[in-house]
Design goal:
This protein is α/β, with parallel strands linked by helices. It has 9 helices and 15 strands. This is NAD(P)-dependent alcohol dehydrogenase.
Amino acid sequence: MRAWVYERYGDVDELHLRDVPEPVPAKGEVLVEVVATSVNLSDWEALRGSPGYARLDGLRAPRTRVLGSDVAGRVVAVGDGVTRFRPGDEVYGDNLPRRGGFAELVTMPEKAVAHKPPGLTFVQASTIPQAGAIALQALAPAAPEAGVLVNGAGGGSGSLMVQLAVARGLRVTAVDNAGKLDFLRRLGAHEVIDYRQTDFTRTGPYDLVVDLVAHRSVFAYRRALARGGRCLMVGGTLRTLLRMLTVGPVLGALTGARLGVLFVRQGPRHFAPLADLCAAGVVEIPVDRTFPLADVPAALTLHGEGRALGKVVVTVRHDAG
């Protein structure tokens, strides 16, 4: 089968489309014929080996050689002990940290996979597992009518989060670059901020701040919070992560705020509820562009450079939808 393989951290020039052996499902696994795979920030970070936590897969070189974790496709075969799926089933799921989705076939743990909702195309379904789980869990602490700020709102997780927050009756401030502000208004954001022009930590105060690309100090985040407010870092620099884990709880205890890191729980029960909302038309799935398997480097570049409005998807089969 064909797969995009990389053996060293770096840019997209490290990616090579190769013929590799077809994987065989082990006990508790399903073999999936990939129809579509969406691009996530975790793919870009794993390719570059940066921030530092992206090298948990290997300090000097990646152990996992094929990127792509959010997969939608059809079950081809099942391993011993698999009871929920059979060949021909249309499925989707998040294969992080094993990845392997930028390929024609991938093995996935049975527990990571769900049946694809009939109302969603393979392209649409592939965008949901990782981004949907983040959106649902990040907004879980928000009380009704709370003021919420999302930094990095124009990407995959952010674009779903903005819509989900609006649907829940929250007041949403969306932060991204100027080229994405009209897009965020169309998604329903009540206020939009160009981070290059305005320091969002000096606006507000907000009941909940979710930062998908965090790099500010914990004191700046605290400044943006209302009394009793909460800040959650989802992605960002290693320095910010460490400070949020160490200084954040201390500062929060002293000031009555809560500052920390969102450790996203994986699996269908954490993303399927959002898929149901998307299938019902409550939340739109914004897909900026789709690329064929041969153009994975271009897909990763569009996403990694922060230019995509919503999700970027790689289509492996012609019936991706």
